[in-house]
Design goal:
Number of helices: 14
CATH class of the largest domain: Alpha Beta
Distance between the termini: 30 Å
CATH topology of the largest domain: Rossmann fold
Bound molecules: adenosine-5'-triphosphate, magnesium ion
Mean pLDDT: 93
Length: 385
């Protein structure tokens, strides 16, 4: 019976003058994901509503759950700004539902409507009571009957489906994700997509060790993340030349730190090409040796743009829950010869000193050339929905 879907967006509403900009980003995103299932989308104060093709409700539900910026949505019917019509439509709506007890919850956004919310609750409740023989239960009803009174129409529905929350994609800055084949960095990218960022991905790999086909793992991860972002770009950068230099010049306990400093140099250079204003990593405090605060400080120092670490205070278990929800977990756990694995030392330095690190790095000559060469050999993949 419900042939429209009401879309609520909490955070955007508070954006004042930018409201239109945020709303338009969200509308464009919804149009792109619903494609031909979408028949019409209308903007109303604080919400949108969409008409969709018959038979596509389940698909629409699944797709809307993946749109950043939606707080919650509801499948609903439309009624008129007329109490008698609302009564009849509510009754029709409820006839199809399975419940014993109910409660009416009216929200009157259109303040000129003749009846106040409490009056609507009472009058509709009474009508249902008399015509359907169901009981009212204010505290713990089987069903909530929501009646939302807008300026042009009235919406009737019984379920609020939780959306992703956050902000529409493209409403915040463009950033780079330092993407490994592991569990954490895809989750960190997802968190930033949800905050409205456009994310470009950079993965560095050992091209003498890893076959090209293996890199499909990274492409598969980006493809999953692209379900939320709709357009993505991935740079896959060969790193073995730089690694050779590091191994030849740096003692094993410092290699990981210097290796990651080079990673950031590559990422910074790509951020100039892509006009990205920040980097996101999957770092989580103390998870591995490179993630002590001293080492994070020594590594991040090299970056000329801000580094975002949305997982810094998360436990692995919490990260895994999100990875499973967004579908990257199953791909991340596929064994993969990570290019850092042979950079690992039995006794890595956990309390590095920045001055010491800078001194050690002086033994690696022509840093810029090494970086330029690596980027010139990068493969670039584009993803589009
Ligand atoms: P993840 O699960 O994301 O691999 P991790 O816990 O294994 O993280 P590390 O391997 O130390 O941690 O990597 C820390 C962060 O460094 C990653 O979250 C990612 O942002 C970045 N990183 C690691 N390896 C690569 C790589 N090969 N290419 C690009 N970025 C990388
Ligand atoms: Mg890793």
């Amino acid at each position: 019976m419900e042939d429209i879907v009401l879309i609520h967006y909490n955070e955007i509403a508070i954006k004042g003058k930018n409201r239109n900009f945020f709303e338009q980003k969200l509308i464009n995103h919804i149009k792109r994901v619903l494609k031909e299932d979408l028949l019409l989308i209308k903007k109303r104060y604080g919400l949108f509503y969409c008409k969709f093709k018959k038979g596509s409700k389940d698909r629409v539900c699944k797709l809307l759950k993946m749109v950043p910026g939606i707080a919650h949505f509801s499948f609903a019917i439309i009624s008129d700004l007329d109490l008698e019509k609302i009564k009849k439509d509510s009754l029709e709506f409820l006839k199809e539902k399975d419940f014993l007890t109910f409660k009416v919850l009216c929200k009157r956004s259109y303040k000129k409507f003749k009846y106040k919310s409490m009056e609507v609750n009472m009058l509709i409740g009474e009508y249902i009571l008399n015509n359907l023989k169901r009981k009212v239960d204010i505290k713990n009803p089987d069903l909530n009957l929501y009646i939302e009174i807008g300026e042009k129409e009235v919406f009737i529905f019984s379920k609020k489906i939780k959306g992703l929350g956050g902000l529409p994609v493209g409403s915040s800055s463009k950033i780079i994700c330092s993407l490994s084949g592991g569990i954490d960095s895809p989750v960190s990218a997802f968190k930033m997509i949800k905050r409205g960022c456009d994310v470009v991905y950079v993965h560095l790999y050992n091209n003498t060790l890893v076959k090209r086909e293996v890199l499909s793992k990274i492409r598969n991860i980006v493809e999953k993340l692209n379900n939320y972002q709709l357009n993505s770009k991935l740079y896959v950068v060969p790193f073995s030349e730089i690694q050779k230099e590091i191994i030849a010049n740096i003692s094993s306990e410092y290699r990981m730190i210097i290796y990651r400093r080079f990673m950031f140099r590559v990422i910074n250079a790509i951020s100039v090409i892509e006009n990205c204003k920040g980097v996101v990593t999957g770092d989580s405090m103390g998870q591995v040796a490179s993630q002590t605060l001293e080492n994070i400080f020594s590594i991040y120092d090299v970056s000329t743009i801000p580094i975002l670490t949305p997982l810094i205070g998360s436990d692995k278990q919490e990260i895994i829950v999100v990875a499973k929800e967004i579908g990257t977990y199953e791909i991340s756990i596929i064994p993969y010869p990570d290019c850092c694995s042979f950079m690992l030392s039995l006794h890595p330095q956990t309390k590095s000193n920045l001055d010491e690190i800078k001194k050690l790095e002086e033994s690696i000559l022509k840093k810029e050339l090494l970086i330029e060469n690596a980027i010139s050999k990068a493969d670039v993949f584009e993803f589009k929905i």
